[in-house]
Design a protein that fits this description.
The structure is a single chain. The protein is of the alpha/beta class. The chain has 2 domains: about 260 residues, Alpha/Beta hydrolase fold, catalytic domain (Rossmann fold, 3-Layer(aba) Sandwich), CATH 3.40.50.1820; about 200 residues, 3-Layer(aba) Sandwich (Rossmann fold), CATH 3.40.50. Helices cover about 30% and strands about 15% of the residues. It contains 15 helices and 19 strands. The strands form 4 sheets. Strands 1, 2, 3, 4, 5, 6, 7, 8, 9, 14, 15, 18 and 19 form a 13-stranded mixed beta sheet that branches. The protein has a two-stranded parallel ribbon with strand order 10-13.
Amino acid sequence: MNQLDRRNFLSQLSLTTAALSLSPFGFSSPLKSTDFVETETTHGRVRGMRNEGVNIFKGIPYGGKVSGERRFRRPEPVAAWTGVRDALTVGPPAIQPPRRNEPAPAEDCLFLNVWTPANDNRKRPVMFYSHGGGFVIGSGASVSQDGSNLARNFDVVVVETNHRLGLLGFLYLEEIAGPDYAGSGNMGMLDIVAGLKWVHDNIGRFGGDPDNVMIWGESGGGAKTSCLYAMPEAAPYFNKASIESGPGVRMTPKEVAAETTAMLLKELNIAPKDWRKLLEVPASDLFSMQGKLPFVPPFIEKDREQGFMRRNYGGFGPVVDGVVLPRHPFDPTAPAISRTKPLLVGWNEDEYTFFAWERKDTEFARLDFDGLRRKLEPQYGAEAQKIVDTYRKATPHASAADIFVAVSSITLMGLGSVDIAEKKTRQGGAPVYLYNFGYKSEKKIPGTDYAMGTPHAMDISFKFNNEIPPRDGSAPKESFFGGNRPERFEASHHFAELWTTFARTGKPAAKGVPEWPAYNLKTRPTMRIDTKCEVIGNRFGEELAMWRSIGRL
């Protein structure tokens, strides 16, 4: 089995998220209510639920219809309502496979959820989260990203949206459909901007500060955050950002997006001049067609000789259209439009073990060093030996399996994260802070004796402070990825406090954690987040020098 490359990343992630949706960990269960709470919004009054010290509002519409004649266009305005609208259950997610404990996926999916300590006009920092799942799956209703504990324990307001995904969110039609479809290749991103505008107009009534908004997200949500960081329409509505295990350095050029559109029309037997027939195709049929086309990973690699590596993408994701997304988020430089906005960026140390778990890959755990070289050769050719030699020298006690995980993890998420940190630093504006999440889960990958370590997506429940003992005093249950050890509670608290302090002040800090210096190109400090956090200078220095020498960074 070849190394998980960037083209395959999103398809594997899609399958995995679908699998997680069937587990009891995956999605929200009904709340145990103590009482209700009401507040006004710009479109009418809503009723939420107060639960253990947190006011929770679910399924608030922030955009109107995006189906029928509004397909591939900006949404209709939200229609005002009279009386009180219940905001007690989540809205439908975007078109995708069914999700446990959520409504059936639907085209009209523009709903958001809010968690707040109180609707009291206190101007708390707002943490506006974009869910993962690449650009094709996910929602704002996962238990792992439930905002209750952040709101309760750190006095912040958390907001999460559902938004258009896949073909319905990112089909590029501008060249054949005319001005009414301007921005069609970025409708999923413009939905998120509409959610940010809703926050600006309404969050004061939910105890949040519209002038202190942090955007953040993991995996595909990190890539969405990268795009927002470079989008003029988003710029007025946030003040700082965090890109987690999803470094969106580059997005799809419009030329490639146009080719993908042509491919879709051919598959549907629709002539370009008859493109309006797309408005009549059932959403379920479009979703089926989406599965026949390539996926877009939340980052696009750039070859040092051939430019953008077309083999790595060609499906549906944000489009560099020159207007909505004027440029690649972090290529060739950090975006000037966000020069004054502080940034967090980083990745998990063992990202690949998530994919080994999902793919039932047990082969990597039995590798010897000759086998490791052979496993890397299909992707790296003659440079495979140099990679193995560099990692053996830098980490002399690592096994071949350890090195395979390290190589796979840093190429999936690490190199792009470092690239972003370096470019943001060179800009000379607001600071950027680089991190690695390193708490080690003892859970084994099934069929092996190899521990999960710090896999992709494990950070979600940690940074949301959802790795805590039960509030009723009962025995803690095993975490889905995080394992059984009680030390995980301390690591989760560190992670959550660092992020909420950053949301509040623009500088990450936490009690019992060393001061976290901004990244610079001399000492290159990286915060390693664990039960005991530490700042490490020039982390992975030898390895990164090698990746630079072969044109991968």
